[in-house]
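Quick one - inputs below.
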Amino acid sequence: MHVRHHLVLTGLPLAAAVGGIAAPAQAQTLDLSITIPRLSVAEYHKPYVAVWLEKEGGGARTLAVWYDHDMKNGEGTKWLRDVRQWWRASGRSMSFPADGVTGATRAPGTHTLRFAAGKGPLGQLGPGKYTLVVEAAREVGGRELLRLPFAWPPAGDGTARAAGTSELGAVTLTVRR
Amino acid sequence: MTLFRHRLLAAAAAVAVLLPAAAGAHRQWMLPSTTVVSGDDAWVTVDAAISNDLFYFEHFPMRTPPAVTQPDGSAGKIENWNTSRYRSTFDVHLTQKGTYKIAAVSDGVMGSYTLDGQQQRLPRGLTADKLAAAIPTGATDVRTTTSTSRNEIFVTSGAPTTTVFKTTGKGLELVPVTHPNDLVSGEAATFQFLLDGKPAAGLPVTVIPGGIRYRDALKQMDLKTGADGTVRITWPEPGMYWLNVSTGGGRGEAGAAQPAAPQAAPPARRATYIATLEVLAP
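Output:
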């Protein structure tokens, strides 16, 4: 039996980092807030959500994927392909669980994520035009995708906003230099 | 004239199970439950049938199990094969990452000869290696047509790979310029077709979206391969599509033992290619 240890994002440490302490001076960061809407449907499952970066003229880099990572025999990975633009752009070349990227599905509400340059899934970003993409797909539900463009390195602190109409609520990206 | 028509009909009947008629009736297809899979224990289940409407099993089942080629090029396994009245079904366990090919390929010879003043048809299901034995001594006016039919689907676990597209140089084959498991509506896809290993120029390509039963228009796209054998297809909407390339009524290469055929005898070389392709929404 092959035993592996994985870092699984739970959301709590990140929320604490963003909410509790003012932005540390040392790092360039991407602060992302994603709202998952509360839906009135007969059968509700928390959506699978993927967050990734696309560089103009370059490849894609996955920052976070929320899915049913803790089902037995990895059964939750079967539905990853339904987050279909992400699957095509990045997911299909990855293996799961992915360290620092895999996370549990989130309940309706607003969730915050912070990615620091040089660390974790964000890593080092070369200068260029980027788009942060958030895609949500819900079992027996719909799918929605939002794109937030930004430039790197940032000239100053900047914020991009987008709002979904079905599977995603407000998504805000704050780039801090 | 009556005799000639009768012969054509007989030849058509002999090959109906192997080849789809150019007119569009009796289309042969396989329909996978999915073509893009994630996870580590993926299966695909497939319906296989010959029908008029796509993709409804309403006429005949596929009779012979197809072959599976795994991403590493080795042969895979057809599991749970079952033939029922209108369709066959089977499963393939996707134990490797990459692109699988599931293909039913058949080679055949059809034709006729005259013996003692009577025209005789070559037996059904005849293959080229048994042709000589099937023609009795003293037969005259021997007419034969060799045919290669290929009916394929592709399924990808994880990222697409291209090992299964290694060509054999026999019949019509698809060379992916665009990977057939990377199709999205609104994006153009390009495929190249080879006939016996060489670019299949000027062949008709028919593309029909599934779901025929519930619409009035067939929505058929009639395309043609270019000089280099490529065809470019823009998918108007997501869904399963049936693609058919055929040498049709045109003439392929003549068989060695082919007498000069008078009037409109069947072509000496026939080849068809069929694939079911899934186009995803953007």
